[in-house]
Amino acid sequence: MRALKNILFFGILCLLSRNLSAQNNIIDNFESFTGWDIISSEGVKIILSHADGVKGKSIRIDYEFANGTGYGGIQKTIPIELASNYKFSFFVKGQSINNNIEFKLIDKSGDNVWWVNKMNFEFPNEWEKINIKKKHISFAWGPAENKSLQSVEKIEFIIASYNGGKGTVYIDELEYTVLPDNNFNPIAPVFFSNLNSSDINLLHDYDTSTYWSSGKSDNGEIIIDLGGIREIGGLKIDWMPNQYAGKFSIYTSDNFKQWEEIYSGLKNSSYSSYIPLHELEASFIKIELSKPVDSLSRFAINELLVFPAEYSTDNNRFFINIAKEYPRGYFPRYMNEEASYWTVVGMNNDVKEALINEDGMVEIDKGGFSIEPFLSMDGNLITWNNQSSSQLLEDNYLPIPTVVWDTDGLSFSTTAFSNGVANKNSVLFLTYILKNQSADYKKGNVYLAIRPFQVNPYYQFLNLVGGVSKIKSINYKDSKCSVNDDKYIYTIDMPDGFGATSHDNGDVINYLSEDKLPPEKEIFDKTGFLSAAFKYSYSLKPGEKKIINLAIPFYKIENYSIERKLVEEQFEATKKIWKDKLNHIEYGLPSSADKIVNTIKSNLAYILINRDNNGIQPGSRSYDRSWIRDGALTSSALLKNGIIKEVKDFIEWYAPYQFENGAVPCVVDRRGPDPVPEHDSHGQLIYLIKQYFNYTQDTTFLKSRFSNVIKAVDHIKYLTSLRMTDHYKNGTDSIKSLFGLLPESISHEGYSSKPMHSYWDDFWCMKGLKDAVEIGEILNDEYNTEKFKKLRDQFKINLYNSINLAVKYKGIDYIPGCAELGDFDATSTTIAIYPCNELNNLPEDLLKNTFDKYFEFSISRKNPDTQWINYTPYEVRTIGSYIIMNEIKKAHEQINFFMNDQRPPGWNHWAEVVWKNYRQNDFIGDMPHTWVGSDFINSVRTMFIYENEYDSSLVLGAGLYKEWIDSPKGMFLKNLPTYYGNISYSINKNPHFYDVRIYGSVKLPEGGIVIKNFNENKIPERVEVNGRDLNNFHSDEIRIKEFPASLKIYYE
Questions:
Q1: Between these two residues, 183 and 240, which has the higher pLDDT value?
Q2: Which residues pair with 276 in a beta bridge?
Q3: pLDDT tens digits for 600-644?
Q4: Do residues 625 and 655 make contact, with C-beta atoms less than 8 angstroms apart?
Q5: To the nearest 10°, the Cα dihedral for 1011, 1017, 1022, 1027?
Q6: 233 and 377 fall within a common domain
Q7: Is residue 846 part of a domain?
Q8: Same-domain status, 996 and 1018
Q9: Among candidates 534, 519, 499, which has minimal Cα distance to 267?
Q10: What CATH number is associated with residue 443?
């Protein structure tokens, strides 16, 4: 009777429920191409034709990325004044590998773009409707201050290269729909059931002491009325212990007539069910329950919660919300919406790298799952949150990272390293060591959990979205755990147990928190949220330890097996490989220099690990590409440290990607060269080629690459000619300031919203032209040398005329970042000093003001009360600038400041972005970011040695700390590579003089060797060189023209 009343009542309710109407407007049904224009980048082919559509015809877009990269698609002028709430929709299908599909909206200015970018989109074989709501559309780029989209002038459909290749995409039924204003009122669900309806309100009373029970039944339904169409993000079902449904299915409906199944789950545990619905729209939800596990055939639910759309806008948000219901430490740190830091693990030139974070969680491959450690002891679960952790590198600099947990007399370490043949059979090794450092007996379990989370956090969005990964299958048998049928974990030390679980049965953390394992050894689940764990029991007397080793091949290796002894041998072999690679220079400095020296060596290693095949890359995740700007300066850092072959390999790989017109691509990756013009690249390639020659004197190589130099210079000539017309010659000061420069570009990140005439580009152009002249002279090519000189000299005049005009019309007293804005950017201006070597040409007053102003701001950040949000550690370039400008104390202060922002400090590296708030969960670029690392190496190297290209001299010891030269044991540096050979020197302090010895394999440069800023610029009483007095010395400079040289520098 109750059930009958319930059904009758619900029938009335359904009659009352109604949906607010929406106003649909077909923008284009693609029955013709009228108004649609093809747009594409260079090297991308687009062909349009018709095909059968959802209704009538559709537009067919055949694309081909001939160079591997780029974009192409269609654009149409479609003016729309947007309503307060709306959506766009269209149908899509394709025969295509995964690439990006971009839906773009452009305003009337044409400069401002809004978009939805579906990265790595899997094109469906059959028509699929894409709905794009107002809230999905984000500002992409442009100079607009008001980023809210009010009106549309043009619409674009773009296929952008993610994997490249070629394919066919079909689009049909483009529609614009005005929607009712969003209902932001809390969802107030009403529940009904054909089972026990009298207690139905107990499903949603937020009282954990009550619950709803169905009574005896083998199946039944729960209906949820949402009070009209609402966006929902998910459901949570809190089952009563051992009274859950062995199977449950979820359906939705707008009208209570047609129902669509959206989820189905199988359960064998009482843990809560979290169901993501990803902004699903419905009026009604139906939950079908079956297969009760209770002996009395009952279903019992403590709470059934309905969440708003925000609950699961994506998988990361879904798990962030789940993590809120668990103790801190049960999910990765970033799931608590706070920053997590990591480092990279891999081999020189291998395309495969793992990540390990500060908490000991290891991501086994790019975008893949992770292995996360937990300990149980005395009934407590030890996580990253409830112990004291530290991070270190082997020997404090080798790229073999370790995370150490200390808790209640136990020390638990996670160490990761890689060995094998790169790109063939390299293997990731994980070694866990549990030590009993107490006086008591310790017993418990080590759990190594396999979970669908990357180390790379969710707020890392560039080129690859971090956070949640996918695990769809797990199978453990005979010491080998298969994950997703493509990754294998080998348990070198046999576990005492293993278990896997599905998302419906609860994440593995539910089991570990109860010191047990889930029951399955083999499991499959299309949701992709599987998890598992190995269990290793321990019983340790005081001083004892337990060692656990896992091996995870980066590549498929048939019949792989390895014993613990061999793991130890691989570990020692890995150490030797890195020691041999990183110690070309021998540093004999006081212990106070250890952090600087270790940072240099570690970042050299990180550069080589981030390197994929021959491509030098600044990162292994967000920046898994090869930019010529990063590669040129990073190559210079390698050359300065005796690492030669990798630089030659990079040049010979990158240079052939130069376009036919001489333009040098800004970036190259696995897909090929990127067609986006960024005009610093042309000078950078020339600089790189010349740098390699400077450190090798390889004339044969220089000659083989001279054609690249000629083509780059010719392209520079063409580009600058575009700014030498009468318009630029005779315009206002703002227009004249652009005369003879390179055209605007986005090479400087600050101009990504709108390209500018960047002096960053122009200084690189200046350097490239100077180096081109020298290359021509070395190769005795008089014709091209004279051509290069003419262009160099004219460009120099135009560049400095531009700077002076920009300063004048902007009313500023510093060197601006670009001609148009008068913007202050000392970090960009550093390149004018090094490597572009324009110090002697820069307006002295403007240069001083630029770096004085920067330093004042920089040191103010040490004050906690100073307001700042973040900065990019590219600022480490200023260290070298201050040394070259002889402002040594400022350089030392900068070093101290930047060292404090290595996160965590034990891994000796920086991310691309540093946030003032240590735990700010926001984009940090990549970590370790090895362009930042190479900037540090290049800058700090000027402390020890640098080449002064103005007078062809070699400057020695320009930035040394006084405590180093005063060290009781003295100091020395051996085998410092220079343009003129390897140089070594030592400094020992005696009661009345400093004994300085300079030796090595150097060919004395024309300008001699200059000891600069020695002993804090105190004027020596006298100086002896090889036993003879030297008369022409100054407080900041001692120039010698003998080599080798033994000096005595006397002070009163």
A1: 240
A2: 234
A3: 999 999 999 999 999 999 999 999 999 999 999 999 999 999 999
A4: no
A5: -20
A6: no
A7: no
A8: yes
A9: 519
A10: 2.70.98
Beta carbons within 8 Å of 393's beta carbon, 6+ residues apart: 399, 400, 401, 402, 598, 602, 906, 907, 908
Determine the Cα–Cα distance for residues 560 and 641; give it in Å rounded to an integer: 37
The pLDDT of residue 280 is above 80 = yes
Is 148 in the same domain as 235?
A: no
CB atoms within 10 A of CB 591: 7
With a cut of 70, say whether residue 807 has pLDDT above it: yes
Supply 993's token pair. 């003089």
Residue 796 CB coordination number (10 Å): 16
- 3-class DSSP string for 536-549: EEEEECCCCEEEEE
Q: Do residues 192 and 6 touch, judged by C-beta distance below 8 A?
A: yes
**What is the rounded CA–CA span in Å between residue 497 and residue 508?**
13
CB atoms within 10 A of CB 15: 9
Angle among Cα 172, 173, 178 to the nearest 5 degrees reads 145
pLDDT level of residue 23 (50, 70, 90 thresholds)? low
Residue that wins the pLDDT comparison between 84 and 198: 84
Greatest CA span in the chain, whole angstroms?
117
Cβ–Cβ under 8 Å, residues 456 and 515: no
Output the CA–CA distances (angstroms, integers) from residue 967 to 257, 348, 592, in the order listed.
87, 36, 10
Q: Give the N- to C-terminal CA distance of the chain in Å, as an integer.
A: 110
3-state secondary structure of 719: helix
Give φ, ψ of 1029 to 5 degrees: -65, 140
Q: Tell me, yes or no, whether 165 lies in a domain.
A: yes
Same domain, 790 and 694: yes
For a pLDDT cut of 90, what percent of the chain falls above it? 89
Q: Is 428 in contact with 370 (CB distance < 8 Å)?
A: no
- Domain end, chosen from 520, 554, 581, is at 581
Classify residue 360: in a domain, yes or no: yes
Helix (H, G, I), strand (E, B) or coil at 759: helix
Q: What is the pTM of this model?
A: 0.93
For residue 865, the tally of other CB atoms under 10 A from its CB is 5
Structure tokens of 206?
Answer: 């937020």
**Distance (Å, whole) CA 850 – CA 760:** 15
Q: Are residues 124 and 49 in the same domain?
A: yes
Angle formed by the axes of helices 888-899 and 877-884, to 10°?
A: 170
Q: Which structure tokens are listed for 152?
A: 């549309």
Residue 83, burial from CB neighbour count under 10 angstroms (0-12, 13-18, 19+): middle
Residue 516's contacts (CB-CB under 8 Å, 6 or more residues apart) are: none
Q: Is 406 exposed, middle or buried, given 0-12, 13-18 or 19+ CB atoms closer than 10 A?
A: middle
Residue whose tokens read 């949701």: 527
Q: Does 305 share its domain with 430?
A: no
pLDDT tens profile 859-868 = 999 999 999 9
Report how far Cα 403 is from the mean position of its chain's Cα atoms: 21
Q: Write out the E strands in 831-950.
A: 870-871, 914-915, 945-948
Domain membership of residue 1023 as a residue range: 951-1050
Question: With contact defined as beta carbons under 8 Å apart, do 491 and 472 qualify?
Answer: no
DSSP 520: B
Residues 6+ apart with CB under 8 A from 470: 369, 452, 484, 528, 529
- 457 vs 268: CA distance, rounded Å: 31
Does a cis peptide bond (omega within 30 degrees of 0) precede residue 905? no
Hey, CA dihedral for 814, 816, 817, 822, is it positive or negative?
positive
Q: Tokens 């590198």 belong to which residue?
A: 393
Of 273-282, 335-344, 825-834, least confident by mean pLDDT is 273-282
Show the tokens assigned to 187: 């969802």
Domain count, the chain: 5
- Side-chain half-sphere CA neighbours of 844 within 13 A: 2
Residue 868 burial (10 A CB sphere; 0-12, 13-18, 19+):
exposed
> Which of 539, 563, 581 is a domain's end point?
581
Q: In the numeric block, which tokens belong to residue 733?
A: 């000061």
Phi-psi region of 164 (alpha: psi -120 to 50; beta: other; left: phi over 0): left
